[in-house]
Amino acid sequence: MTKHIFTACLGTETHTWAPLPTNTKAFETSYLVRNGNHPAMVNMFGAPLQIWRDRAKAKGWQVTEGLCAFATPSGLTVKSTYETLRNEILDQLIAAMPVDGVMLSLHGAMVAHGYDDCEEDLVIEIRAIVGPDVPITCELDLHCHLSRAFIDNVTAIVIYKEYPHIDFAERADEVWNLMEGALDGRIKPEISIYDCRMIGLFHTTRQPMQRFVQRMCDLESQDNILSISLGHGFPWANIPHVGARTVVITDANRPEGDKIAETLGRELWEIRDQITPPIIDLEYAKEKILSAKNGPIILADIADNPGGGAPGDSTFIVHMLIANGITDCAVGGIWDPSAVEICMSAGLNATIDLRLGGKAGPWSGPPIDIKAKIHAIHENLYIKGLGNSKRRIGDTVIISADGIEYVVHAVRSQNVHPSYFTDAGISLENKKVLIVKSMQHFYSNYSAISKSVYYLSTPGIVDHNIKRLPLARVARPVWPLDENPWANDIKRAW
Question: Is 112 buried (19+), middle (13-18) or exposed (0-12) by CB count in 10 A?
Fold first, then answer.
């Protein structure tokens, strides 16, 4: 029997005290698609909608695709921006009714003025339209927030298992399988969720998190277990329900799901000290560079990661390189629209005095004053993202000064692939140091070209030290703000 599916995407990852607001232009410059007219260079959050459309077509089912909107992570979403985009999706859903199912590609950490949890608000509104019996399934980034109200209003969720998020396409297929099974009457998904009482960063590229991910996969082979996820949470959000949650989807067996979710949550707690990523400081980085015989050394500027809401114009590492006469380096990149405009006006091969970076505030460091030679100019450049997706960095120039090459771009985006350099015109051959603005998404691709990969701590918006974060509204107790959140079995209101 033919079914009618409604799909849509709305999301961003909100750093609630980051300086740059997420307005309508932020979505327009990142990814905003209507009527399913995706470009060839599809964003990873748009990819699930294409996958679901193809899966539906194979079954002869009808799909109505609503708005697909994603913005590069930044500060609080402007209230009117969120409400306008949300209402567009809701109006499209009303026009498409009746529908048999709703499938959403979400990030899961979108916060707007007046809305602690935009995804929660969105699904509550959708549930009010479609009624209690229409399945709503969602794909989520693993840095998501999971409130009780959100869980109560969806049928099933699937969260990326990997960080970097190399598995978003596989998880989209998993979301489809849950929807198809529910509509065909073969399964009855029930959600179990467990509060791990932890806030942190958990890289799945190293042990013991690799074993934890494999354990989730192994448990999915058991009878009645449809899907298992870990929502890591996004630490840079001052909202009550920030933090890690284990999620188990069973086939009409919530008691078993509750048991497995708690078991996994307790196991995550036991390895908490081992899963904190190793981070070095600037002095240690300098010593590693000066003593290195081969390159490139990869330095991740994690505190200035645009993928976590930072501006992407920090200069602390560059100042260290210049002060120590370190050359044969490439910086990917510096977000500086005004510098891009100046360089494009000057033209190819020009040499100009330029003030670069350090513009967003004290957390970005002092600007770099250089005599820059312009080697390449690109209009509206796209570079490789995760999987087969693309990332837009907009108008871009390649400049050099004092033995350092820079990718300077007009649209904020983190660096997740060496093509960030090579597609812009920088050769990586004989490079001593590569600076990448990323927290972890860069790792898989850059570790393939270097065994010397370091996470570098500098001042910045995306501070890695959880204890220093202004999380005044978070539900307590929670680790590491509280050493033992399980003492006396204190209840947490989240």
Answer: buried
Average pLDDT over residues 33-59: 94
Retrieve residue 375's tokens. 């080697």
Query: Which residues, in sequence order, are bridge partners of residue 136?
Result: 102
Q: What is the mean pLDDT of residues 29-53?
A: 93
Report d(CA 72, CA 243) in Å as an integer.
Answer: 21
Strand, helix or coil for residue 370: strand
Contact criterion met (CB below 8 Å) for 290 and 297? no
Which residues touch 234 (CB under 8 Å, ≥6 apart)? 13, 14, 15, 109, 143, 144, 145, 242
- Cα–Cα distance for residue pair 473/470, rounded to 1 Å: 9
Assess contact for 156 and 182: CB atoms under 8 A: yes
Say what the pTM is: 0.93
| 164 touches 443 (CB < 8 A) | yes
10 Å CB burial of residue 427 (0-12, 13-18, 19+) is: exposed
Residues 312-355: tens digit of each pLDDT: 999 999 999 999 999 999 999 999 999 999 999 999 999 999 99
The whole-angstrom separation of Cα 433 and Cα 273 is: 30
Q: How many residues does the chain have?
A: 494
Of 131, 162, 154, 220, nearest in space to 416 by CA: 162
**What are the tokens at 335?**
């977000």
- The token pair that represents 211 in the structure block: 């074993």
| Contact residues for 146 (Cβ-Cβ < 8 A; gap 6+) | 108, 157, 193, 231, 241, 245, 247
Cα 209 to the center of its chain, rounded Å = 18
Rounded to 10 deg, the angle between the 209-219 and 254-270 helix axes is 170
Q: Give the residue among 161, 90, 95 at the shortest CA–CA distance from 121.
A: 90
Q: What is the CA radius of gyration of the chain?
A: 23
Q: φ, ψ for residue 183 (rounded to 5)?
A: -70, -30
Please identify which residue in the block is written with the tokens 């979403």: 77
| 366 to 256, 284, 341, 369: CA distances (angstroms) | 55, 21, 20, 9
Give residue-wise pLDDT tens across range 99-109.
999 999 999 99
